[in-house]
Hints:
This protein is an alpha+beta fold. The chain has two domains: 3-30, no CATH class; 45-154, Immunoglobulin-like. 23% of the residues lie in helices and 36% in strands.
Amino acid sequence: xxxxxxxxxxxxxxxxxxxxxxxxxxxxxxxxxxxxxxxxxxxxxxxxxxxxxxxxxxxxxxxxxxxxxxxxxxxxxxxxxxxxxxxxxxxxxxxxxxxxxxxxxxxxxxxxxxxxxxxxxxxxxxxxxxxxxxxxxxxxxxxxxxxxxxxxxxxxxxx
Length: 159
């Protein structure tokens, strides 16, 4: 490409950039509307926290048709924690049941735990949760509110 061609090409690119700039600013500068903010709050999951001090708390509404995040501090069952070559060799599993139905499970800490374990609240009524820790060396421990299980009320879906 000759020197004159280079300057002509640069001039065309500058004109193109100036023409596109207002559209780019418009796209980047748009603010969410009040309706957008309302939609985001409707889909926000509740959180049940089980902290190291053996306190439990609920943040948000446990409502049928929504999701609840289980924030579990594995210090609660520290006796089963262990690593080998930096890899957890234990798991803490949350078992849960709606109104005494067949229990389901999700790993909340240790090996194979997901970053943000959550439960789909597919029915209203009483949600019971209890935790089981195991490791590769045979440790087995429970966190179940002294055998009573942790209970939470899930309200019916609102229209």
